[in-house]
Design a protein that fits this description.
The chain folds into three domains: about 60 residues, lambda repressor-like DNA-binding domains (434 Repressor (Amino-terminal Domain), Orthogonal Bundle); about 35 residues, no CATH class; about 60 residues, no CATH class. The chain is about 65% helix and about 5% strand. It has nine helices and two strands, in the order H-H-H-H-H-H-E-E-H-H-H. Strand 1 and strand 2 form a beta hairpin. The radius of gyration is 20 Å and the shape is globular.
Length: about 170
């Protein structure tokens, strides 16, 4: 999905009009809807500062908007080929099921394993009704920010427990 399609998808998900989004990111009343329509149609691409502002208004990471061009099967497969080159992600078969695997010899193995493992755990929570689809979407559209916030909460909790322990 190209950046314009991502903007439209997320804007609609958030219940915003093109004009509402345009005004929220600082465009004038006269140009707000036109500029957003241009982004969404792909006739114009937002500059980095506007991409950041759009992401902020839509409550997502700018990385969510800047996904590779995967509008076609060929675009997606070439993106996956690039992932093989850079991250060691490969097509494989495990117990007769086609899947993507990580090459343990890749220099990015540990970081990719960590990210994919976190993703799988969130999907598992969703499947087990431990979180809602909205909570899952919030997690993935704001990754890695949500993970950093969770880590901070765990650290703060440990600090509070240690403080209580030493005050006793």
């Amino acid at each position: 999905m190209a950046i314009g399609e991502r903007i439209k998808f997320l804007r609609t998900l958030r219940g915003l009009t093109q004009k509402g989004l345009g005004l929220a990111i600082g465009f004038s009343e006269q140009t707000a809807d036109v500029r957003v329509a241009q982004y969404e149609s792909g006739t114009r691409s937002p500059k980095e500062k506007y991409t950041d502002s759009i992401a902020n208004v839509l409550e997502v990471s700018p990385l969510t908007l800047n996904v590779p061009d995967i509008d076609s099967d060929l675009g997606l497969i070439h993106t996956l080929f690039a992932c093989e080159d850079v991250y060691g992600i490969k097509a494989d078969s495990v117990d007769g099921v086609l899947c993507l695997t990580l090459d343990k010899s890749s220099p990015n193995y540990l970081s990719m394993f960590d990210m994919l493992n976190k993703w799988q755990k969130e999907l598992e929570k969703l499947a087990n009704d431990e979180i809602t689809k909205e909570e899952y979407d919030t997690w993935r559209y704001n990754y890695p920010k949500v993970e950093a916030e969770r880590f901070r909460k765990r650290i703060d909790s440990l600090r509070a427990k240690n403080k209580e322990h030493f005050e006793e």
